[in-house]
Amino acid sequence: MPNLGPTELIIIGLILVLLFGAKKLPEAARGLGRSLRIFKAETSKLRDDETETTTATVVQAQPQPPAPAPQQIPPVSATAPEPALSAEEQARRLEEQAAKLRAQAAAPKPQ
């Protein structure tokens, strides 16, 4: 990538002032900064989710010991609500519960 000298930067700045106006430039720069921060946060979440997914698939590929007898699910207490969870956390918990239920269903029933 070619280096931009001070002359080129001044010309680019003048063009931006002519296109957007001096009042709109700070607002546009703030919006661009916010957008970049959001983009970086989302891409880091994607990387984190990807590593969690690969770790989870490796763990699930290992043979599981026989599941104990089905347990009673305790009733949900209305007095102690859980803190608000993100959509990713809720999805992860639901997947864990589904995996437990599948393991219990696949376990041979004693007769």
Automatic annotation (TrEMBL):
Per the record's keyword annotation, is Cell division included, yes or no? no
Question: Which stretches are tagged as biased composition: Low complexity?
Answer: 53-62, 100-111
Topology in membrane: Single-pass membrane protein
What subcellular compartments does it reside in?
Cell membrane
Basic and acidic residues composition-biased segments = 89-99
Known Pfam families for this protein? TatA_B_E
| Bias-annotated ranges (Pro residues) | 63-73
Q: Which InterPro entries match?
A: TatA/B/E, TatA/E
Q: Give UniProt keywords alphabetically.
A: Cell membrane, Membrane, Protein transport, Translocation, Transmembrane, Transmembrane helix, Transport
Domain of life, per UniProt, equals Bacteria
| Record region (Disordered) | 45-111
What this chain does, per the entry, is described as: Part of the twin-arginine translocation (Tat) system that transports large folded proteins containing a characteristic twin-arginine motif in their signal peptide across membranes. TatA could form the protein-conducting channel of the Tat system.
Assembly information from the UniProt record: The Tat system comprises two distinct complexes: a TatABC complex, containing multiple copies of TatA, TatB and TatC subunits, and a separate TatA complex, containing only TatA subunits. Substrates initially bind to the TatABC complex, which probably triggers association of the separate TatA complex to form the active translocon.
- Similarity-based family: Belongs to the TatA/E family.
What is the protein name given in its UniProt record? Answer: Sec-independent protein translocase protein TatA
